[in-house]
Amino acid sequence: MDSHAPQHSPRYMELATFMRTPWQADPAGLQVALAGVPYDGGVTCRPGARHGPREIRNQSTLVRGIHHVHRINPFERLNVADVGDVRFSRIFDHEAVLADIEAFFARIHAAGARPLTAGGDHSITLPILRAIARQQPVGLVHVDAHTDTWGEWNGSRFHHGAPFRCAVEEGLVDPRRAVQIGIRGGQMIDDGWRFSRDSGMRVIFIEEFTALGVPAVIAEARRVVGDGPVYVTFDVDGLDPAYTPGTGTPEVGGITTREAQQLLQGLMGIQVMGADVVEVSPPFDPSGNTALVGATMMYELLCLMAGEGAPR
Ligand code: MN
Ligand code: MN
């Protein structure tokens, strides 16, 4: 291997791209496009996730190639590059931002690449789904403390607590092929939980997660999403804040990093047509560990995208 190749040179060198992949703004020819959405205008409480992509890029320099369970090297299997961050035409106009995000991901989709994204708050997932799931509703694996199926809040339907309600209502996600994992925490109203249940989504609260154990949760998730295309969305607040304190809406009593890795590894073979890691908020993450967890989960997701049977 070329001694200047990213996987060979010292990992602390050069500009930080996601997992030290090449930076390539044009997605043409890529199979997976690593993208950043540095935006947190959809938060309902603590901001900071706009700084997520840069810190995840930085911590992702620790990621290596060969996965210790799957024994594959996704960087050899896939043509993958960092396509940079979404640029915003009117950054203080939330709905204009959503349109900019959609246009950015539509370009990736049109090039035939699958996106793997670092947010940003969870509101960014709706325009990504608008860009890549209009032709056919997709299945959803959603790790989060929150169902993110709430309705209008303070005059908008497009905050970070609502993307999956909008996605179901817009026909982007098939609720019968959607599973939400790790749900917990008190709420002001139970509208979101009821929407998820009544629309047919499979909601696995943290108590059921613990009672079932990870292997049975994997089996249930695989049953729900089946063989069709699936989008995987990973909110780091699904984990316990002992592991990911740097997030806007922490909820104690969550999933461990080990359980999350086991869960994602157990999904090998599902048809991942896109994925994201959201809600890493570096201002609340002085150790940098939340960004490292985010980068590690992106690597797990990249391995799923590179796995046998996955679309190439
Ligand atoms: Mn969320
Ligand atoms: Mn959440």
Short description:
The chain has 312 residues and is α/β, with parallel strands linked by helices.
The helix count comes to: 10
- How much helix is in the residues? 25-40%
**Beta content:** 15-25%
Strand order in space, largest sheet: 2-1-3-8-7-4-5-6
> Which regions are unreliable across 5 or more consecutive residues at pLDDT < 50?
none
Largest sheet: 8 strands, parallel
Q: Name the shape in a single word.
A: globular
Structural class call reads alpha/beta
The distinct ligands, each listed once, are:
manganese (II) ion
* Distance between the amino and carboxyl termini: 24 Å
How many β-strand stretches? 8
Give the overall average pLDDT: 96
Q: Give the H and E element order.
A: EHHEHEHEHEHEHHEHEH
How would you describe this structure in keywords?
single chain; 312 residues; alpha/beta; eight-stranded parallel beta sheet; 8 strands; globular; binds manganese (II) ion
Write the layout of secondary structure elements.
Elements: E1 32-37, H1 52-59, H2 74-77, E2 80-85, H3 94-110, E3 114-119, H4 125-132, E4 138-143, H5 163-169, E5 173-183, H6 191-199, E6 202-205, H7 206-212, H8 214-225, E7 229-235, H9 257-265, E8 271-278, H10 289-306
Parallel strand pairs: 1-2, 1-3, 3-8, 4-5, 4-7, 5-6, 7-8
Helix pairs in contact: 1-10, 3-4, 4-5, 8-9, 9-10
Bound molecules: manganese (II) ion (2 copies).
